[in-house]
Amino acid sequence: MKKWGILISVFVCLVLIFAINCKSPTTSEADFPAVAAESDSSSSSQSGSGGSGESSRETTTTFGSLKIMLKDKPVEDAEHVYVTISNLVVHLADPDEFIELSNEEKEFDLLLLRDNPTTLSVTLLEVGHYNQIRADVVEGSIVFLEDDGQGDFDKVTYDLKIPSNEIKVPVQFYIKENGTTEIILDFDAEKSIKLTKQGNKDSYKLRPVINAVNVSYQ
């Protein structure tokens, strides 16, 4: 019996040794986590790289400059024509939206702008197609030299009544990347100011007439 027991033990040992030696290294449990970790890292890296590029393209915006100049045609007999302009905006055609350039109130003597156009605004804008300029004429006045009846002349100021203060100037222009678009607006005071009589007293109304007379690109 001892002899058979020894033989059986030896046989079992041989079977176990054979089974261990025949086990493939590629099916080892220790190998799987390493392969899985490498795959996850690669996938994550590719996904992150693609997402970053996509975001960068979507948020890229280019700009150029818009310079708006203001000039005036002369008004007969007037010494001064003062107007205060505010709330300057432009309309971007696509997408359809208004962009504010300035809400600062600026006063101009239009008669000084006959031969010397002045800068109304210089603004950095998104590249694109624009088709309108808007502004408000907040207040105005006109000054004349009038005979005082004794051979002397005095400066007399009349407030300009403004029935509608919003100005809409249709003008097609483009903002180009790193370029400057210059627009000259002509505030035609002669056509804008109308004299009305109230008894023996003169009264003046201002209905702003402004035209874009020149668009240039630099």
Description:
Helices cover 24% and strands 51% of the residues. The protein has 218 residues and is an alpha+beta fold. Strands 2, 3, 4, 6, 7, 8, 10 and 11 form an eight-stranded mixed beta sheet that branches. Strands 5-1-9-12 form a four-stranded mixed beta sheet, with no helix packed on it. It is elongated. It starts with a helix and ends with a strand.
Descriptive terms for the model:
218 residues; eight-stranded mixed sheet; four-stranded mixed sheet; alpha+beta; single chain; elongated
* Poorly predicted parts: 24-58
Summed over residues and divided by their number, the pLDDT gives a mean of: 80
Major sheet summary line: 8 strands, mixed
- Please tally the β strands and state the result: 12
Which percent band covers the strand fraction? Answer: over 45%
Overall form: elongated
The sequence of SSEs as H and E is HHEEEEEEEEEHEEE
Question: Count of helical segments?
Answer: 3
SSE layout:
Blueprint: H1 2-22, H2 31-58, E1 63-72, E2 78-92, E3 97-102, E4 106-109, E5 118-126, E6 128-147, E7 153-161, E8 166-175, E9 180-187, H3 189-192, E10 193-198, E11 201-206, E12 210-217
Parallel strand pairs: 1-9, 7-11
Antiparallel strand pairs: 1-5, 2-3, 2-4, 2-6, 6-7, 6-8, 9-12, 10-11
Q: Can I get a quick summary?
A:
By secondary structure, the protein is α+β, with helices and mostly antiparallel strands.
